[in-house]
Design a protein that fits this description.
The protein is α/β, with parallel strands linked by helices. Strand 4, helix 4 and strand 5 form a beta-alpha-beta unit. Helix 3 packs parallel to helix 4. The longest helix has 30 residues.
């Protein structure tokens, strides 16, 4: 049986995600923390999957005031065995999953052809590409079996669409992983569409996060001077777009890579 997401009848509940059960990888800090905050403030329940459990618990304590159901579960998404264990914990905490946000990611500044270039390649690819695959492999079938539809959002990057500045800011595995995740997103949108599961990716541009420290000063100056928005974005802005993508208003949005970059791709 094919599940069709119905159109919204009016604007009253168009952006409503209250009561939805949301899994956010890396939801304890940076962009992930903004995503967690946005869903919690919008009335959703959130399970944070993260490597640092203490940090995850702290994030949970900070959103408890919004009155939902929240938990933090230790998980390195690059490790399939850990993902299987975490998935089982999630399914004990939630009776079903409505939304998955694959946000956990790492980057590098190591030139690929340097001594440690190949080990860095595998480290980044394992988290940024294999990590989302591990999560989806374990949790998406549960969404299919539930027969309620749902939403998957993969956080990619404008770095999956551009490699300018690579001589100064070496990040080859990150670029490759994010480009691969964009294509994987489109594939999933096709194969999961019959089950009412929409799959999209968001490509952040310059967003304040834990990766800021790796950016060259010249890049920061360029953003402030030449970017149409003339500023960095904030994690909560990525979170707001995730909430939209999970809401009834986005019922016809699937297979899309949405750049939230302040116009970076327009000018560079």
């Amino acid at each position: 049986m094919i599940i069709k997401n119905p159109p919204i009848p009016d604007m009253k509940t168009a952006y409503n995600v209250a009561g939805k059960n949301v899994v956010v990888t890396g939801g304890n800090r940076g962009i992930g923390r903004g995503i967690t905050q946005a869903f919690a403030e919008s009335g959703a329940n959130v399970a944070i999957l993260c490597r640092n459990l203490d940090s995850g618990k702290k994030a949970v304590s900070e959103i408890e005031k919004f009155g939902g159901k929240y938990t933090a579960i230790k998980c390195n998404t690059a490790n399939h065995d850990e993902v299987k264990t975490a998935a089982a914990e999630v399914l004990k905490f939630f009776d079903n999953i409505d939304v998955i946000v694959n946000n956990a990611g790492v980057a590098t500044t190591t030139p690929f052809l340097s001594e440690n270039g190949l080990s860095e390649w595998h480290r980044v690819i394992d988290t940024d590409l294999h990590g989302p695959a591990n999560i989806i492999f374990e949790l998406a079938p549960k969404m299919v079996d539930a027969g309620k539809g749902g939403t998957i959002v993969n956080i990619t990057s404008v770095g999956g669409q551009r490699v300018s500045g690579s001589k100064e800011h070496h990040n080859a595995p990150y670029n490759a992983a994010k480009a691969g995740l964009d294509i994987f997103t489109r594939y999933l949108a096709v194969v999961l569409g019959d089950y009412g599961i929409r799959v999209n990716s968001i490509a952040p541009g310059p967003i304040h996060s834990d990766l800021d420290k790796d950016l060259p000063p010249s890049f920061i100056g360029t953003i402030e001077e030449h970017l149409p928005a003339h500023r960095f974005g904030e994690p909560i802005e990525i979170g707001a777009l995730c909430v939209y993508m999970a809401s009834p208003a986005a019922a016809m949005v699937t297979g899309v890579n949405w750049a939230l970059d302040g116009g970076l791709l327009c000018v560079n």
